[in-house]
Structure of Purine nucleoside phosphorylase:
Amino acid sequence: MLESIQHTTAYIKSRIGDFEPEAGIILGTGLGGLVNEIEVEKQLMYANIPDFPISTLEFHSGKLIFGKLAGVKVVAMQGRLHYYEGYTMKQITFPVRVMKMLGIKSLYVSNASGSLNPEFKKGGLMVIEDHINLQGDNPLLGRNEEELGPRFPDMSEPYQRDLIVRALDIARANNITCHKGVYVAVTGPNLETKAEYKFLRTIGGDAVGMSTVPEVIVANHMGLPVFAISVLTDEGFNEVLKPVSLEEILEVARAAEPKMTMILKELIAGKDA
């Protein structure tokens, strides 16, 4: 794996020259619009990058975007990878390894998720303060590469506390509804049953989704500070569940995206409320 990471990193560096990103961004389902805020200097299609996995979802673009966001050099994944697409955990998290090798000092992750908490309504935002991994797999299984991180990485604080505090302050200052909570990662691709939603809430979840946790585990393994935020696109706490379509999820995500973009932009720029 280390050789593949080095090979891919070398190729990307040959294409972007002396550009060294300070922050890495992973954009979730329906949340690719943040790219419009980036002063783009270079774009690379996943399909053209050696050893780089390609998103199989038609609504994910599959591009690495290099440029400046609020004056900060960033690399953004426009189109993330999911376990339910059939990739291994190591493939899903390969881009995080590469971004770290490219020089990023922190990782910012977004996703669309379902609310489990009756106080967290559809269309709102949730800053992730902790997670529960129910995906039944782990990207760190197998032989450990000491060059990448320790065999037994600590996960007592997987999400950077100061970034959480600052993000919530930014949200309050801009009258944005933004909660703080626990994210539960499941495999998908189906949405949950009523009994499953109840179970996930009972074990401590505030939102449920199909991504994020593998990338966060690998980021912690490599010593990267992480910030993650969810757009709550549906509700799983009602007594009578309403059927939810992908189109509805994408519509809610697009409507909430400007609020998420504002928080991420000011956070990455180092601004306080």
User: Anything to note?
Assistant: The mean pLDDT is 93. The two ends are 41 Å apart (CA to CA).
